[in-house]
Amino acid sequence: MSLPILQPHLIVGLEPTIRGNIHYLSDDDIVYPVGCVVAVHNINTKKQRYIKLSEKGKNLTHLLVSPNKKLIAIAETTDKLPVITLWDPALFRKKKTINLPQDKDIVCSRYACMEFTYDSKFMVCVTAEPDWTLYVFKCDKGKLESFARANNLNGTGTVVQLPLSLSIFMKCYDDGAINTNKRSIERLGIAFMTV
User: Rounded CA gap, 138 and 88, in Å?
Assistant: First the structure.
């Protein structure tokens, strides 16, 4: 005689402290974090599929879906550096893990903001205080393409948002100007604009 196995049928709830906490994956599927999983809920069939998180989901900071809907990015804090995991929503398998470079003097433990480029080829991330560094990663390889300082030269100001569009790469922040290596950003085909 085998023991019965409990399987979740429906998990509801929403975590308001997570940035980008709900997205449409398709016309029928909604992605959102709840408890120790990221749920993909089909609104027509009322069925769910799950991505299990490490550390019971307590370290989840950002949830993001790529513009082409082929990647789900999950950012988590760790004891040392923040980590981004890219998932394939069709197969529910981990595709890539994006780590910050180990050779840099990085002190932060989380990302302030992150966004995919319009073509879903690159992921742009900004680390939080005290570093405030912008990183551009290639999604298919998880490789660091470029990095630059993300706040003012005097170290003031915080990055709040990274709105990316077809031709404009812009950072919104509390105060001051941004100083970056524009050539390396332009090399990726992203126009750079400061506000």
Answer: 16
